[in-house]
Automatic annotation (TrEMBL):
Protein's UniProt keywords contain Nucleotide-binding: yes
Entry GO MF terms: ATP binding; DNA binding; helicase activity; hydrolase activity
Protein name per its UniProtKB record: DEAD/DEAH box helicase family protein
Location of the region described as Disordered in the Swiss-Prot/TrEMBL record: 391-412
PROSITE patterns given in the database record: HELICASE_ATP_BIND_1
Species of provenance: Candidatus Anaerobiospirillum pullistercoris
Domain of life per record: Bacteria
Amino acid sequence: METGVNTQTNLETSIDSVEQESRNEQAFYTLIERMGKVAYNERDKGAMFERLMCHVLAIASPYSERYTKVQLYKDWAAEHPECTPNARDIGIDLVATLIEPEWKGPNKEARYVAIQCKFYKQDTSVPKAEVDSFLSASSTKYFAERLLVATNKGWSANTEQTIEYQEKPTSILSLEKLKNLNVDWQQYLQNGTVQQKAKRELRKYQEEAINNVIQGFKTHDRGKLIMACGTGKTFTSLKLAERQVGQHGLVLFLVPSLSLLSQTLDDWTQQSIAKMTAIPVCSDSTIDGSARPLDSEDDSPDSILADHDLSCPATTNAKSLADKVASAFERYETRSDLGLTVVFSTYQSLDVIHEAQELYGMKDFDLIICDEAHRTAGAYLFNDLKEKEKKKASKGNRGKPAAIEPSEEDLLAPQGADASEWDVEVESLFTRVHNAAYIHGRKRLYMTATPKVYGDAPKKQEFLGDAVLYSMDNEQIFGPVFYSLNFDMAVKLGCLVDYKVIILVCDPKYMSDTADAQRVADFSQTQTARIIGTWKALNKYGAKEHVVEDNHPMKRAVAFAQRIDIEGMPLGRKRDMTVASKQFAAKFNDIVTSYKHHVLERGQEALAHNETPSLEYQQLLDHEGICDCKHIDGSMSSVEKSNLLKWLRDEPEEGHCKILFNVRCLSEGVDVPSLDAVVFLSPRKSIVEVVQIVGRVMRRAPNKVRGYVVIPVVTSCTDAAMALLSNNPDFKQVWQVLYALRSINPNNVLADLPLNKLDSRIEIISTLDAPIVHKDTKQGKGEQLDIGLQTPPTEVLDQPRWDFGEAAAIEEHIKSMIIKKVGNRREWEDWAQDVGEICS
């Protein structure tokens, strides 16, 4: 356990690190802006940018590990006249020379990377003709790869498709990725010196984690590292790998998505002690998005990036992978400055790894690290698997079946990490990593913030031999827990900010009556109320638990919907009740604008009659609460998705809040530390997913006090509705979130049944049709309090009293219901068994 001094040190280190990163980012954008202003003309601006990139690519990771030299095209052409007929600019701006493992192969002349630099305004789209000329000029046999460095955000669909389907690997270094290179932009801004940023240092708890894992590996060949989101799992695992396997070891790092692969590859190469040989691997199905074995939805978190967004070209070929690894180890014989050889792969690409080892003799891994290891938990009913195999065989399809995602009602069940006990053909792409006979490695480390554990019902099926179960509490498969740092401790250490849950209760009739009919056409009362409730929560209207340092409206939020679109759904109640990301993004502002007009109109009427207007009216005068809404989903191009994430990270206009709507693609592996809130508009697939989402909003950022979890609940204020409130479908996400929070803070009591007390981090706000009544009477000592007042007065109050009436009563009713549901230990155990999936 950390001491108070160590906790304070961790907090100060965390804050300093975040602020330093922020200053470096600001220096980068200042540099880009300054270069645009001081250039004499467009040609001069382009030349300045080319010279800067020539220096940057020579020292920044992972490019400096892959290039021996970076030159201006004219210098390279003069040095290698055999490779080009003349030294004139033909669309190539820079040329990099690859290190041996990259060009060693059948075409030994292809040892160069053609680089084009485009210093455009951010809102400019690169003309396809310019890209075509670059691709044509670099099509000669001497160029093995291409790299496009561009400061703009816009790429046409045709241009991106052209880049994606090139035979030669073609990568894009975007403005966002350029900003995140390990370059000290502040230093360059001050004196024009290009140098790397100082590498990060391990914190005390990270040192403890590494020591525990190394100690654990002395007696076990596999084990778990449990660390809350935002506590530096990626960096910790790098330093662990360097100590565990030595400078010249071979490591396999597995992730569920290209987005995470890209982030990890960049971070590891930037923070490694010695120059790392990074080899990204992804299957064709990973690239085109067709392999989503654990995700039946059409908005997968596995599809944020395309392969051309990776800093290093990915291989999809087993022989090529084996050759690259062999070449890397050959270089160890002559180069003492080289570090780890690391294969970064998606779980969907494990068949490429398997073939490289089985068919082409690739070495066994010294260490296999499974990131987001909860994705490797799974369950399979034997009968279902046999039926799927029969169907595949009848169609002549020998492909590998996808995992069967169990329902909450019948989560399944026997483990099988041994190939002799379990046929690899029926394992999912994610669970194959457990099989030591399929992927050869000396040690396996499973990293996650949210272990996935199955309950008694599926374990009984496992015992009866009806199913196969990969549950993370099975030490035979996952090993013991080597180290654990939960969310609660991470907050105390200052690695994360704390959370606050806002449950905002809305009356559909009251809300929709305040909105203009034309603006809410094709939108149900329920959805209208949900939008207005979300808007109120993001602006903290009605919140009672304000603190002095956190009373500002929110600036950035991510909202999670039920599906992408309702187009094509038949008319009816199901369509009306469906929360669709595209429709909410499109209608949000129209509905809120109509509602705000209504509030202002009523406030002005009150003033005209010498009455006190509503508190919301006063707040609206001070802060208009404008929301800028956009939608993102997995079908968009990688450039579109990257631009939307950049849009979310960028500072909004004064008085504005950005909301990015999605279904699932932002639930995992997306890092936006400045995010203020996540909004649950519909229930999630699992408790693990809820924890992952909440973890997004707890990341530390400059001036961030806490992260908000918003749950708009739509219900009527009638007695009948109140009696059935616990069965309201909207409360499913309330229970999901509260149980998830309970699981990540096992030592905290969110709801205390004996004391009838709710944790201060949970706030219930009612906006039901229960008008606040202004009373002329004064309240004296001994008079009965109205519902909702916190403490009795100690003296006669000479100011008006307010009767919150039914709204406060509803809040109390919901509070009591939550305390009873969440505060009862027996109900928690029953619920966990019913759902069959908990986080510990």
